[in-house]
Write a structure and sequence with these properties.
By secondary structure, the chain is of the alpha/beta class. It folds into two domains: 225 residues, 3-Layer(aba) Sandwich (Rossmann fold); 146 residues, Rossmann fold (3-Layer(aba) Sandwich), CATH 3.40.50.2000. Helices cover 44% and strands 14% of the residues. The protein has 15 helices and 14 strands. An eight-stranded mixed beta sheet has the order 4-3-2-1-5-6-7-8, sandwiched between helices. A six-stranded parallel beta sheet has the order 11-10-9-12-13-14, sandwiched between helices. β2 and β3 form a beta hairpin. α5 runs parallel beside α6, α7 runs antiparallel to α8 and α12 crosses α14. The two termini are 15 Å apart.
C-alpha cells in the first residue's frame, strides 16, 4: 500500500517556527506509519528517506501559474471580506477555497503517481480534494482527506454566522463528500461530520508524538508557569493577551514564561517572552506548571501532548483540551473563567501531591494513546479497506 500525502504547506520550513507547526507535525507523523511520499510545492519526499527532486519544468510550474493564483487569491479574499461583514471573517480561511485550484500541485502528484505506482492520494485539508478527486478517478486510485480542523465549526464558534461562514461550511462539506475516506483527529470531529451527512469511512486518529520523552530531574527554585506555541497563530496570540491581562497581572508572586516564534508585547513584569526555542523539552523540564487558556481553535492541541510528555501538570480551558480523552482532576485541570484559572494555579503550587498525580497520569495517557505507533495498525486497516471495498 503506497500513499501520497498532498499538501500546500511548505514542509521545508522548520515546524516549530511557523503557525502550521501542528499540521506539519501531523503530516510527518502519519506519513511515517505507511509506505508513502509527501508532495508539496517545492519538493517531494519519500517519507522514511531523503528528499527527492521534481524534474526542473515541473518544479517551475508553480511560478508559471503564480500570476493566476495571485489574481484568484485576491478575488476570493475580497469576496470573503464582503461576505464576512461585521463578523470580521478571517481572510486566512479563504485558503480553504483558494488552494483548490493549485494546478502545479496536481501536476506534481500526477508525476509521483505515475512514477511510483500509488494506491491512495491523501490530501491534507479538504481544499485540495476537488482536483485530487479527478486525478484519482483518472488513475483508478482512492482519495482520502485528512481533516486537521473542521474549519466551519471553528469559525462559527468564534465569529458566529455570516454569509462567508455559510459559504465555507458548504464548500468544506462538499469537498469532504468527494473523498472515499476521511481522517479526523478526534471523536468530536467525527460526530460533527456525521451530523452533517458523512456517515461511513471516517477514521479517528488523534494528534500524537513520535516518542516518549525521558524525564530529567532538574533542581528548581520558585514556580515557573509556561505557555508555548507559534505567536503568529491568532488563538495563541489571544491566549498570551489573556495570560498578561487576566492571570499574570493578578499573580505577581509567580513567574510566567511564553515560548514561541513571532513577536508579542506584554505589560506584566512577571511575564517573560522567550521566543523560539530549538529544544522545547529541555525548556519544559525547567518549568513547574503548564497553562492553555485558549478560547479558539480546532482539532487537538499538540502543546498539551508536549506538556504531558514532559510530565508537566496542565490547566486548560475546555476549548484548549477539546478532542483529547482527558479526565478533569486526574490528568488535567479544567478552568473556564480566569478567576478559576488563578485559583487552580495556586492550588497546584501549594499541592505537591496533586502536581505529581497530574504529571504521572498525563504521561501515562500520552504513552497509551498519543504516540503515532499506537495508530499504525488502524491506519493500515483503513487504507486496505478503502482499496478493497470502495
Amino acid at each position: 500500500m503506497r500513499v501520497a500525502f498532498l499538501t500546500y504547506l511548505n514542509l521545508e520550513n522548520t515546524a516549530g517556527k511557523n503557525s502550521s507547526a501542528g499540521a506539519i507535525a501531523r503530516i510527518s507523523g502519519l506519513s511515517k506509519q505507511v509506505d508513502s511520499f509527501i508532495v508539496h510545492k517545492n519538493n517531494f519526499y519519500y517519507a522514511n528517506s531523503d528528499r527527492l527532486k521534481y524534474p526542473t519544468p515541473l518544479f517551475m510550474s508553480y511560478y508559471l501559474f503564480l500570476p493566476i493564483y495571485f489574481l484568484f487569491d485576491n478575488i476570493i479574499s475580497f469576496l470573503f471580506f464582503i461576505l464576512g461583514g461585521s463578523n470580521s471573517f478571517p481572510l486566512s480561511e479563504a485558503a480553504h477555497i483558494s488552494f483548490s485550484y493549485r494546478i502545479d500541485l496536481f501536476l506534481k502528484v500526477l508525476y509521483v503517481a505515475k512514477k511510483h505506482k500509488l494506491d491512495i492520494i491523501q490530501v491534507e485539508f479538504p481544499a485540495l480534494s476537488v482536483g485530487a478527486f479527478f486525478l484519482t478517478r483518472l488513475l483508478g486510485l482512492k482519495l482520502v482527506v485528512d481533516e486537521h480542523n473542521i474549519e466551519f465549526h471553528k469559525v462559527l464558534r468564534s465569529k458566529g454566522k455570516s454569509p462567508a461562514a455559510s459559504l465555507l461550511k458548504s464548500w468544506e462539506l462538499f469537498c469532504l463528500k468527494l473523498a472515499d475516506g476521511v481522517i479526523v483527529p478526534s471523536n468530536l470531529d467525527k460526530t460533527i461530520l456525521q451530523k452533517h451527512g458523512l456517515k461511513d469511512y471516517i477514521l479517528v486518529i488523534p494528534n500524537a508524538l513520535a516518542s516518549s520523552y525521558e524525564i530529567k530531574n532538574i533542581d528548581k527554585t520558585g514556580c515557573t508557569i509556561i505557555f508555548h506555541g507559534s505567536l503568529n497563530y491568532y488563538p495563541n496570540f489571544e491566549a498570551i493577551s489573556i495570560i498578561d491581562r487576566y492571570i499574570a497581572r493578578r499573580m505577581p508572586e509567580f513567574k510566567f514564561v511564553v515560548v514561541g516564534s513571532g513577536e508579542v508585547s506584554v505589560s506584566s513584569k512577571n511575564v517573560e517572552v522567550v521566543g523560539f526555542v530549538e529544544d522545547i523539552y529541555s525548556f519544559l523540564s525547567r518549568c513547574d506548571i503548564a497553562i492553555v487558556p485558549l478560547l479558539q481553535g480546532g482539532g487537538t492541541r499538540f502543546k498539551i501532548l508536549d506538556y504531558w510528555n514532559a510530565a508537566l501538570p496542565v490547566i486548560s480551558t475546555k476549548v484548549g483540551a477539546e478532542g483529547l480523552d482527558y479526565t478533569d482532576g486526574k490528568n488535567i485541570l479544567i478552568a473556564d473563567t480566569w478567576s478559576n484559572f488563578r485559583k487552580k494555579i495556586r492550588q497546584l503550587a501549594r499541592n505537591r501531591k496533586l502536581r505529581a498525580l497530574l504529571s504521572k497520569n498525563g504521561k501515562s495517557l500520552l504513552e497509551s494513546k498519543y504516540l503515532w505507533n499506537k495508530h499504525k495498525s488502524s491506519l493500515h486497516i483503513f487504507y486496505t479497506k478503502l482499496r478493497v471495498v470502495r
